[in-house]
Amino acid sequence: MAQHEVHHHLGEHEYSFWPLPVGIATLLLPVTFVSYFVWQKPLLALVLGGVSIALFILSLAGWAYEFFIRATVLYWHFVDLMWLLVASSAYLVGGLV
User: Which of 21, 23, 26, 83 has the largest CB neighbor count within 10 A?
Assistant: First the structure.
């Protein structure tokens, strides 16, 4: 009977770290524009823009690899979506006041 152990993974989540590099790449884009238009540093803007675009493409490719090749299912529970809705509503109302 020991050979036929069944492992149930109910309630476990597979978390992906790929949204972090996507966020970092997205946050580098305003710094790129600031460095070009405000600081008048076109070479720094070129480097930051290249790093941002490369990081964005690599992280999207890694995310797609994780989803399609490894068949990792990333899903949201209703409660997670509810907290996201509450947080975004609070942010919106707080910004309007």
Answer: 21
